[in-house]
Write a sequence for this structure.
């Protein structure tokens, strides 16, 4: 019997890196390609996301009430809301399965760092995806990645998110429309040719960074986890064909590299 898989795509990155708009644009792109898509909002604190969510954590936890009832600030309330959301993960998954979609786009919380480092993050991810094939899209914000030290620190955060979630991960250079073509090329090259990144760090960085940059780059080179960075603009809808190709390569690759 032919069993249809659902493919889960978790959109992750720091606050403001463009997760929600990318989710909206990727949904549009996939639907235009005749694929069915379910969009999941996992951000309890979002007011009006740029898409209409099929499944929404806000139906299970009330961020405003959590803030008020427990006397918490925005970050504390987010952490508490996510912890509470984990107890509803089976219901969220059931709602997702009922949509019978080809792709499930999961827009992760604004403060991704909090989500990734708490237990609720990985628990939520594994509960939502079940045994379905999954990957994460890690957004490197062009505003940050345009400098060598910004790129390196974003990369390292991506690596640590990768360690927490244990999913195959693609690096996306988000908001690429704000960069010049040659800037994009340079950033993409940093990912594949670490010596270029090292040179850029040497030219631009303070002494201390220069000293340990080499050690970090040697470490990155030896674990060989650097994948190509894919420039995408959710605003201009560019880069999606290449992104889709890379997602297919992971989902349909047929190997068990990530299991
Ligand atoms: N120029 C440009 N701006 C973008 C793009 N994607 C998102 N933004 C802007 O960046 C800000 C944060 O985007 P959002 O999707 O809410 O980020 P999130 O916090 O990661 O969900 C918003 O003002 C967006 O309009 C893009 O592709 N190009
Ligand atoms: Mg968002």
């Amino acid at each position: 019997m032919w069993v249809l898989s659902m493919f889960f795509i978790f959109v992750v990155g720091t606050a403001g890196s463009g997760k929600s708009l990318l989710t909206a644009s990727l949904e549009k792109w996939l639907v235009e390609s005749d694929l069915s898509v379910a969009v999941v909002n996992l951000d309890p604190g979002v007011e009006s996301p740029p898409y209409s969510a099929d499944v929404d954590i806000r139906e299970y936890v009330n961020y405003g009430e959590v803030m008020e009832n427990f006397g918490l600030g925005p970050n504390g309330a987010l952490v508490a809301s996510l912890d509470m959301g984990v107890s509803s993960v089976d219901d969220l998954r059931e709602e997702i399965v009922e949509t019978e979609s080809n792709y499930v786009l999961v827009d992760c919380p604004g403060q991704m760092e909090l989500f990734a480092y708490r237990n609720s993050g990985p628990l939520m991810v594994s509960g939502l995806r079940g045994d379905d094939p999954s990957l994460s899209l890690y957004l490197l914000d062009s505003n940050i990645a345009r400098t060598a030290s910004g790129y390196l620190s974003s990369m390292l955060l991506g690596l640590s998110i990768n360690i927490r979630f244990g999913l195959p991960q693609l690096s996306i250079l988000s908001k690429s429309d704000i960069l010049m073509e040659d800037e994009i090329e340079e950033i993409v090259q940093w990912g594949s040719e670490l010596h270029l990144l090292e040179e850029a760090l040497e030219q631009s960085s303070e002494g201390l960074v220069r000293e340990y940059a080499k050690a970090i780059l040697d470490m990155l080179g030896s674990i060989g986890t650097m994948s190509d960075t894919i420039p995408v603009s959710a605003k201009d809808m560019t880069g999606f064909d290449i992104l889709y190709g890379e997602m297919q390569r992971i989902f349909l690759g047929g190997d068990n590299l990530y299991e």
Observations:
- Residues 255-259 have pLDDT under 50 and may be disordered.
- The chain has one domain: 7-192+228-252.
